From TrEMBL:
This is DUF403 domain-containing protein. Pfam families: Alpha-E. InterPro entries: ATP-dep_Glu-Cys_Ligase-2, DUF403. Residues 1-308 form the DUF403 domain. It comes from Sphingomonas elodea. It comes from the Bacteria.
Length: 311
């Protein structure tokens, strides 16, 4: 396989997963905004910008951090790489470059998602925006399903590897939303608004039912953190993404003979994650743990690029 083909497949997986994450982030922020009293509502949208690393780009627009402006910025604004439309455009370009490696269903899902933005100038109000992101999530889930039905070869494994690396990064950022999001004045940790915020994060990763299955207590922040960080039963948890990355790299090594730095880094990260315990993570600082994880994920991404000769 040509190195540019491998790179296109890997980044196709990453961009589709990133579009799905931003859609989920917008959805979560709309719900958090609805739960928060001003000025905490603006803090919700500032947190969305912070965890998507688009806060500086948005500040340059001069607009206030309210739903109408931030939702449009994260979905429709093609002037920066952190919007859904740019992610889908890049995914579509990469898919076109490797069109013969994809099934008709996989290509159609990407193309349909991209066409959702045709002639659209505004996301509308909260209801219209939620409808839009739900459609985007539907198409990205369709692409993921189509990928799992493709022939299991190097092309499929590279797409799934890109998605796993991106998903790990996104889950870490999503959990970190709670670090950036302040409770309204007068609200206590563990109070109604705090619980609603944690519930919204669970809803964003479709983990409400999983939480109820795995924890007999009511909603507790430490259990939510444990679920999203340490429980491999949840496909979007950090633990599950780390395990999947190791498995996919191993399968690619068997098929391509390319094995090296990325495999070692992925296995070392898996060993660290398996030793980590949620109470220790919380005591040591959840935000610091997540920042370290995000940095390690970026280093792994670079190692993958070198190992498979993307550069």
């Amino acid at each position: 396989m040509l190195s540019r083909t491998a790179a296109a497949l890997y980044w196709l997986g990453r961009y589709v997963e990133r579009a799905d994450f931003i859609a989920r982030l917008v959805e979560a922020t709309i719900r958090l905004d609805a739960l928060s009293a001003r000025p905490a509502g603006e803090a919700a949208w500032q947190s969305a910008l912070a965890v998507s690393y688009t806060d500086e780009a948005f500040a340059a627009t001069g607009h206030p951090a309210v739903q109408a402006h931030v939702a449009r910025f994260l979905t429709l604004d093609a002037s920066h790489p952190g919007s859904i439309i740019r992610c889908l455009e890049m995914a579509r370009n990469n898919a076109r470059a490797v069109r013969t490696a994809l099934t008709r269903e996989a290509w159609t899902a990407i193309n349909r998602a991209w066409w959702l933005f045709a002639n659209r100038a505004s996301t509308g109000g909260a209801t219209e925006t939620l409808n839009l992101v739900e459609q985007i999530k539907g198409e990205t889930r369709g692409f993921e399903g189509a990928t799992h039905r493709m022939m299991r070869n190097e092309a499929t494994l590279l797409i799934q590897l890109g998605a796993a690396v991106e998903r790990a990064d996104n889950t870490a950022r999503l959990v970190d939303v709670k670090y950036h999001l302040l409770l309204p004045a007068g609200e206590s940790v563990g109070g109604a608004v705090d619980r609603d915020q944690w519930t919204t994060i669970l809803q964003t990763v479709s983990a409400v039912t999983a939480y109820r299955w795995l924890y007999s207590e009511g909603l507790r922040p430490d259990n939510v953190i444990d679920l999203l960080v340490s429980r491999s039963e949840l496909p979007r948890s950090l633990a599950a993404c780390v395990e999947e990355t190791v498995t996919l790299l191993s399968q690619l090594a068997k098929r391509t003979g390319l094995q090296g730095e990325a495999d070692r880094m992925a296995r070392a990260r898996l060993a660290r994650c398996q030793k980590a315990r949620t109470p220790d993570i919380i005591v040591g600082g959840l935000h610091e743990y997540l920042e370290t994880f995000i940095t390690e994920n970026a280093l792994l991404d670079s190692a993958i690029a070198r190992q498979f000769r993307f550069l």
